């Protein structure tokens, strides 16, 4: 069995098939548990609502760095209502590639959400893009934070810093189609006891399905190809990464 630790299938602004259909296709591809990740208050609420209706779906709530300009109010209220299926805070972080929100606001709202993660003892799904120099000093002020660097494609140096903090690394479709040799090298160097799989659906569809909409069932394609890259079997890769995800998210 596999787990999709990061997708956005709850988000009604994308044109997904029904949740029932997505779950059926996922199960046919050995993908059992699914974590729906919020990027703003509206789709965090949708994640909690869908997680409440399906046993195998879990929710992460948070405001993406792009949306921090609108603030994070309301996020903490979701935890006060019903936190049983909320397994993480995310996706939160810093994105200096697009800079859709001013840097100082991204930092302020990241820190506020890290405090929520500490207060509620939840792991974090991090979105960090071209911002690690600012990220590491912030993280140092929040000792005990657990989490995953979602869609990590950065340097081996930053990989090692993440590993030192005990972070997991989210491997997705990029590992199947990147032509960048340093990224390929990095993917080969992640300790397998730190790898979790994700689709980031609807984005980042793995090869050979580029051009189609991504969905949780495609974790199996990512796992199959990543097992090849790492010279291990699909079954072993599935076992290891599922154990990692269950440990991190307590699911
Ligand atoms: Zn995402």
Q: How many DSSP E strands?
A: 8
Q: Biggest β-sheet: count, sense, barrel?
A: 8 strands, parallel
Quaternary status of these chains? single chain
Number of discrete helical segments: 10
| String of helices and strands | EHEHEHEHEHEHEHHEHH
- What is the terminal separation in angstroms? 13 Å
Tell me the strand order in the biggest sheet.
Answer: 1-2-3-4-5-6-7-8
Share of β-strand residues? 15-25%
**Overall morphology:** globular
In terms of structural class, how would the helical and strand content be classed? alpha/beta
Helix content: 40-55%
Which small molecules are bound? zinc ion
Mean pLDDT: 97
| Backbone CA Rg | 17 Å
Characterization of this structure:
- It is built from ten helices and eight strands.
- The chain is 42% helix and 18% strand.
- Helix 9 (219-230) packs across helix 10.
- The protein has helices at residues 19-28, 41-53, 75-81, 103-119, 132-140, 156-164, 174-177, 181-188, 219-230, 234-249, and strands spanning 2-7, 31-37, 57-61, 86-95, 124-129, 147-149, 168-171, 195-197.
- The longest helix is centred in the middle third of the chain and has 17 residues, at 103-119.
- Helix 5 (132-140) links the parallel strand 5 (124-129) and strand 6 (147-149).
- The two termini are 13 Å apart.
- With 251 residues, it is of the alpha/beta class.
- The protein has an eight-stranded parallel β-sheet.
- Bound molecules: zinc ion (ZN).
- Zinc ion binds next to loops.
């Amino acid at each position: 069995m596999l787990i999709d630790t990061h997708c956005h299938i709850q988000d009604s602004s994308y044109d997904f098939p029904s949740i029932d259909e997505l779950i059926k296709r996922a199960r046919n591809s050995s993908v059992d548990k699914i974590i729906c990740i919020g990027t703003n208050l509206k789709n965090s609420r949708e994640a909690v609502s869908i997680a409440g209706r399906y046993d195998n779906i879990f929710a992460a709530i948070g405001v993406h760095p792009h949306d921090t300009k609108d603030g994070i109010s309301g996020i903490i209220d979701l935890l006060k209502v019903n936190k049983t299926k909320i397994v993480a805070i995310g996706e939160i972080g810093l994105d200096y590639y697009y800079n859709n929100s001013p840097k100082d606001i991204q930092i302020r709202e990241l820190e506020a959400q890290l405090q929520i993660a500490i207060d509620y003892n939840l792991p974090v799904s991090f979105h960090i893009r071209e911002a690690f120099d600012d990220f590491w000093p912030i993280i140092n002020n929040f000792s005990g934070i657990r989490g995953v660097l979602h869609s990590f494609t950065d340097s081996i140096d930053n990989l090692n810093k993440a590993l030192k903090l005990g972070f997991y690394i989210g491997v997705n479709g990029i590992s199947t189609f990147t032509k960048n040799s340093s990224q390929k090298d990095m993917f080969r160097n992640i300790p397998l006891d730190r790898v979790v799989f994700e689709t980031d659906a609807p984005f980042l569809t793995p090869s050979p399905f580029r051009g189609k909409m991504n969905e949780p069932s495609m974790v199996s394609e990512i796992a199959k190809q990543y097992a090849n890259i790492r010279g291990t079997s699909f079954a072993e890769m599935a076992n290891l990464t599922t154990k990692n995800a269950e440990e991190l998210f307590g699911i």
